Amino acid sequence: MGDETPTVRFNAAADEPAKQSSNSKTLVIILAIVGIILLVAVAVLLTLLFSRGTGTVATSPSPSPTSSNPVETPTPSPTPTPTPTPTSTPKASPSPSNPPQATGPVFNSFSPANGTQVGCPDDSSAVPVTFTWTSSDANEAAIGVGVTDAYAGPYETGLAADGSYVLNYQCSNATQIYTVSIKGPTGQTNKTVTLKR
To answer: pTM of the predicted model, to two decimals?
Structure first.
């Protein structure tokens, strides 16, 4: 028995290091796997942090201005606003103001007024109507009945540029057209009125 006891002790001592070595290898493998998992997790976290971090940093302060700037830059509103500004009307104004020319003589005063009622007592009477006028830039005048140009269909010509003339209104007509035309060096001007019975 004395021989068996030490042999057992030596066998147990020899098994123990083998178990410890096996346990150590298993522990190293487990630690290596945990380390790899941790490295992968750290890499994933860093990737997510940089992706989200850059996105968050860019999204919070930058996207508002960045989004606003691209939207404002492509928007053609600033371009159309300057386009109407160059097409301003003030440039067109000087052109019409350049040709101020006299077109002919001018009536300063004229009577009777258009639409005047002459006051016929009946349908068969004749009522005298006095036409008076004053003018500028005229040398002579003419008067016509039923026409709009007294020189084209005159009743009387060679009248004074500032003058008067009496015509009878025939009360058998409900209305009658009368025209006084004046002539001068700058042309001719007509004044037409329609009188009522």
So the answer is: 0.50
